[in-house]
């Protein structure tokens, strides 16, 4: 199979591309910098400008869309919020326009989504059919609702569309784990806010194995929570990480008001609680290599 990945230079995209190559697929990347050196075939695009290499989509059997600006970078000013949203919608709108044309054989779109769609839900166990957060009350939920709607629109063209709602992806190479591990390593680790908010996580390797299975198997369609089957509270997460890294936790909890002062509205990323179920993924036959947090963290730090 020939697979075209957007966002292929990111943490998930890089690992997924390697895995798909190992599985014998041809992999190419859709990038704004097609002249860069790479051992993958590169096609250029500029979603904001609405331009794309005309050879890109005719190359592919499947498109994996991972493009989107990191929501945890920079304060959520009005302009930053606009950038976060458009970085997700512009690419999908461009893909929709081009996939509506003849001359390609793309049958599948795998388009990243996020568990942020559920909003802050305490200890409620969240399934794919759980109500989503009200967009007016939650910026991230609003972004994800629009993101998924843009991908579903492509499904109206006759493509199989899969929407993995991705949780906190654990890797020592990037993402949320890196700053948390840094504070623990230097003795400054502490639960955030009440510490009772749930974190729904997934090991990077499981994340990419799951995406690969979604690419291969046409039975996968629609929304799936891409999380490990055992979410933990922020306090459990911090304590387990400290145990695995052989570091004490000596500081009190970081108060929520301090985080809100420091981070503004973006503090909802770390203070919001999402206890997300993996039952649908498990019922589809996926087997996690790292279903438990301690083993996942030990794979990085032991």
TrEMBL record:
Superkingdom as given in the UniProt entry: Bacteria
SUPFAM superfamilies recorded: NAD(P)-binding Rossmann-fold domains
Domain DUF1731 per the UniProt entry, residue ranges: 254-298
Pfam families for this protein: DUF1731 (PF08338), Epimerase (PF01370)
Ranges for domain NAD-dependent epimerase/dehydratase: 3-217
Signal peptide: none
PANTHER family reported in the protein's UniProt record: EPIMERASE FAMILY PROTEIN SDR39U1, SUGAR NUCLEOTIDE EPIMERASE RELATED
Family recorded in the similarity comment: Belongs to the NAD(P)-dependent epimerase/dehydratase family. SDR39U1 subfamily.
Protein name: TIGR01777 family protein
Biological source species: Hymenobacter setariae
Species classification: Bacteria, Pseudomonadati, Bacteroidota, Cytophagia, Cytophagales
């Amino acid at each position: 199979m020939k697979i075209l990945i957007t966002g292929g230079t990111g943490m998930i995209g890089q690992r997924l591309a390697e895995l798909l190559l190992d599985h014998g697929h041809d992999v190419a990347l859709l990038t704004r910098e097609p002249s860069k050196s790479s051992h993958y075939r590169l096609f250029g695009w500029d979603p904001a400008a609405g331009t794309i290499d005309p050879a890109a989509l005719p190359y592919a059997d499947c498109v994996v869309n991972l493009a989107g600006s990191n929501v945890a970078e920079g304060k959520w000013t009005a302009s930053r919020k606009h950038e976060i949203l458009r970085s997700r919608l512009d690419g999908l709108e461009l893909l929709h326009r081009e996939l509506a044309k003849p001359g390609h054989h793309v049958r599948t779109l795998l388009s990243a989504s996020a568990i942020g769609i559920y909003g802050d839900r305490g200890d409620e166990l969240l399934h794919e059919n759980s109500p989503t957060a009200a967009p007016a009350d939650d910026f991230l939920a609003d972004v994800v609702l629009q993101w998924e709607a843009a991908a579903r629109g492509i499904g109206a063209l006759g493509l199989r569309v899969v929407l993995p709602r991705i949780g906190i992806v654990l890797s020592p190479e990037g993402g949320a784990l890196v700053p948390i591990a840094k504070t623990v390593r230097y003795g400054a680790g502490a639960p955030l806010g009440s510490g009772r908010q749930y974190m729904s996580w997934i090991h990077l390797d499981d994340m990419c194995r799951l995406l690969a299975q979604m690419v291969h198997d046409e039975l996968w369609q629609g929304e799936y929570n891409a999380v490990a089957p055992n979410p933990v509270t922020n306090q459990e997460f911090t304590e387990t990480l400290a145990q695995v890294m052989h570091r004490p936790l000596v500081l009190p909890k970081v108060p929520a008001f301090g985080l809100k002062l420091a981070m503004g509205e973006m503090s909802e990323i770390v203070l919001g609680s999402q206890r997300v179920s993996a039952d649908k993924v498990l019922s589809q036959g996926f087997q996690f290599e790292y279903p438990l947090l301690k083993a996942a963290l030990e794979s990085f730090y032991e």
